[in-house]
Amino acid sequence: MTINNDLEKLIENLPFFLQEHLNQHTSKSQLIEIVLDLGRRPEARFVSGPEYLSQKIISWQDIDYMTKRVSKFSNENRAGIERTLHRISCIRNRQFLINGLTCRVGRAVFGTISIVRDLLESEKSILILGKPGVGKTTIIREIARVLADEMEKRVIIIDTSNEIAGDSDIPHSGIGRARRMQVAKTELQHQVMIEAVENHMPEVIIIDEIGTELEVLAARTIAEKGVQLVGTTHGNCLENLIKNPPLADLIGGIQYVTLSDDEAKRRGTQKSILERKAYPAFEVIIEINEQNSWTIHEEVQNSVDLLLRGNFFVSQIRQFSLAEKIRIKSKRFQNTQTSLIKNSTNLNESSTFAQRNWISINQLKDEKALKLKSKKLIIYSYSISSNLLKEVLLKMGFKFVLTNEIKKAEVIIGLKKHLKQNFKLITMAKQRNIPIYSLNQVSFYQLSKLIQFLSL
């Protein structure tokens, strides 16, 4: 996992007495935001907790110094620093003068979405739920880069507050080849969403913070046109969406239905019940419980239906660590009570799907692969994401080394259309008797198949 935060560019715009302290701070890499309030001591908020940066209190001159070195504040009282992802938000007094600043550190994290790579390849629309500050924007920024660069999709980002691609006319490199459409006013976001589909022929639309009925309607319209959506909204879990009328249409909408006496008796319910009224605009939901633990609903319509009936529904818990080990397990929920499913005979149709997906990702399909697992394979990858290749090999349990030197490699793996054009690479491989394996398309499935073939 690689992090690019351009922290120096934020620090150099702070008042001088803060710059020296932050540059020497041992936890500088764990910085979340800096708070500057008039008449108070400056405060830094780290992952471990808040901390005062100085005994000196913030003056009007300090606030003025900072505001003159960032971009112009928008109607939402937000500004940025050119060619970075940092966000500067202001607090104003009754005379509209700025008397407080919140400087949030923006980070482009590469490799954070390897845990849901298979969901991206499914081409289903994905909605990400989470509390403010949990990292939803960072996640969709990385999703945009992976879809555009590694999966070669036509991706357009609807960047309302310039948080995804930075506060500049030139988008930040963290979004890769994805294109960005800026939104002049927040209330026009739904119009820009529709304009993106009508004018620019995207395969994927990325939307941050869907919150109004008009934006929900625009998202449904885009989904019905066959465009893949990746969006975020505030909420802790799927139940929050069901209980939120403006956002409920994202998961198909909820309506009261009156049953006949016979039907109510057959179901064992009351005559008036809640039911989903349409197909969800988002087919997959990811709940960001913690930064390294996500809950996945791969069949949203099933989860919603079962939740409305008060029955058990199954979702996945995916966990990962800095050691790049990913664990997936199915859990069964009912009214916030959880119990781990230990016996496959108890799984309903949804859980069977979850278990089957876990097996396809994490278990070997061929026992002959054990031969390859016993030795360390030295691989030279060409035009293939190293993160994706590492993910496949780790999940299949192989020992490997990725090298940048062809002469040390035992095998070369690359994308066919790019390998054909590199005659020098092909010549060197022939001279050293290094086998070359090519892929027509870079995907988790194609790489898995290739690794299994190598083990035969």
TrEMBL record:
UniProt source species: Entomoneis sp
Domain of life: Eukaryota
Entries under InterPro entries matching the protein: AAA+_ATPase, P-loop_NTPase, PTPase_dom, Spore_III_AA_AAA+_ATPase
Protein name: AAA+ ATPase domain-containing protein
UniProt keyword annotation of Plastid present: yes
Keyword terms, alphabetized: ATP-binding, Chloroplast, Nucleotide-binding, Plastid
GO MF annotation terms: ATP binding
SMART domains the UniProt entry points to: AAA
Segments forming domain AAA+ ATPase: 122-261
Keyword Glycoprotein attached: no
